[in-house]
Amino acid sequence: MAKPFLQCLLVLGGVCISVSFNLPCNQDHRLVSLRADTSLETNVGEEEDESGVGSTARPEIKSQFCVTGISPSKETPLNEAVSRITGCTFEDANELIAIGAVWARLDTLTQEDLLAQYENDNDSELYADLPKGWGSGTFEEEEDLDLDAYLARMEAQRFRRVLSPTLIQPGTDLRIYPRPRRFPACYSIDQTSLLYEDTTFIVVDKPPLLPTQPDASNYLENCPGCVQDILGPFDDIKGNPIRRPLICHRVDSVVGGCVVMSKDRNGQKVFQELQRQRKVKKVYLAVTTEPVPVGMHLHWMWSPQSVRGSAGGPPCQLIAHAPPESRRKARQFWTRCVLEVTKCEKIKIEKTDEYDPGDKQHYQNTIRLVTGRKHQVRAQLASLGCPIIRDTLYEPLAGLTLGNLELDEDTMDNAIAQCRVPTEPIGLQAHAILFGNVRTRGREPWWGSNIEKE
Fold first, then answer.
1. Which of 185, 156, 131 has its CA nearest to residue 308?
2. What does the alpha-carbon distance between residue 426 and residue 405 come to, in Å, rounded to a whole number?
3. Which DSSP helix (H) or strand (E) runs through 103?
4. What's the pLDDT score for residue 138?
């Protein structure tokens, strides 16, 4: 006799398809859910080949699938549970655990198991999987937050990444990414990528297509992980080796350039305070095929869409040029975006296998970022009719703003429908960053530096 116990949930284009299979009764009873995970910006690129690492520095999977299941009814090694749920070998299961593609529901881990994941002898947390702001430079830590409150906050996160082999309790909910995203750009980092280092801060030139923070399926191939593995080890101000640097700010995956990391949480707080006081200066280089007007540009970004982790709506940020009707609406629905274009120069880009400039005139624009919003430079330049080259997420929106909705809603809808997350490095570089006594500049961008003289 057979019982239906395997249920698959496939999500394609927002449509959910649920399928049940009949399997023999002597099989372990586990509910397995298979879904397409397309929620992250880094979820782009070509299909993965058998080697797991492509020949070019691009993410390799266009649609990533995650499997969720329940562990057997007895205490089980994690790799065995992963092998059973995904159907892979023990060796492959160990590799999935090592790369950070396995998550466990928090309420099935003991307090000791949880703290062992995020503490070391120096009582410092692994930043990557903590709630937003815990070591991420975006949250002011409450000094009086006790352990019970900390654990309560962690429980709200449901699933936590399991970073090492362990025994799991019966009925543990697991989330597994059997085909983790790979980021070969990680291995283009070398000693020339290290732009600055002192007792607190590290500044590196991040290659394009390398995420700043860990992907849900890959804890290793990201900016801090690759910097630690290739350029490390690093010591903190006390001379103690650090596990890996902590991110102080974010740079889009498809953008290369300066990224600041800290060797301890105190450095993160210092950098965050400098940002709050507007004492961090950031300079970007952007290449367009239309000249960007020189001067200060003040626009308004639709706030609900710019919230990190927001669901629904297009992945791009929507801009309005006209100020909000009232201060109340401005505070509630709009985010002020300011940048200054200090220079717009003609540039000649040589044809390569990666990019063909054709007969179009290209312009390199030097931009001083006054406010730092998600996709700000990309969205503002596109709204001015000067989208950045290769930026397939904003090119369809060239010259369009939310003000166009009043005139032609269909045009905006059609443009948004054509927006696609880029799979190649775009013509944008975080060229320089200045804070405190630190002054660093990135290396030559991928498009070169052949400025045409007037």
1. 131
2. 28
3. strand 102-105
4. 37
- For β-strands 167-168 and 102-105, DSSP reports them as unpaired
Q: Determine the pLDDT at residue 59.
A: 39
pLDDT of residue 280: 96
Contact assessment for residue 191 and residue 230, using Cβ atoms and an 8 Å cutoff: no
Whether residue 335 contacts residue 323, with contact meaning beta carbons closer than 8 Å, is answered with: no
- Six token digits for residue 281: 């200066």
* Residue whose structure tokens are 């009043």: 406
The answer to whether 367 and 339 have CB atoms below 8 angstroms apart is yes
- CA atoms of 159 and 129, how far apart (whole Å): 10
Determine the Cα–Cα distance for residues 236 and 245; give it in Å rounded to an integer: 10
Q: How far apart are CA 72 and CA 400, in angstroms?
A: 54
CA angle 376, 329, 419 (to 5 degrees): 35
pTM of the model: 0.76
pLDDT of residue 419: 94
Specify which residues 8 forms β-bridges with. 19
In the 8-state DSSP scheme, what is residue 387? P
CA-nearest of 196, 191, 300, 206 to 249 is: 206
DSSP character for 354?
S
Give Cβ neighbours of residue 77 (< 8 Å, ≥ 6 apart). Answer: 165, 166, 167, 168
b/e map 140-164, b = 16+ CB within 10 Å: eeeeeeeeeebeeebeeeebbbbbe
Running along the chain, 454 residues long, what does each successive block of 10 average in pLDDT? Answer: 37 34 34 41 35 39 70 91 94 95 73 53 38 37 51 62 89 92 96 97 98 94 96 94 94 97 94 94 98 96 67 77 80 90 97 94 97 94 97 95 78 90 96 96 96 86
Pairing mode, strands 428-435 and 256-262: parallel
**Which residues, listed in sequence order, are joined to residue 334 by a DSSP beta bridge?**
302
CA atoms of 161 and 51, how far apart (whole Å): 24
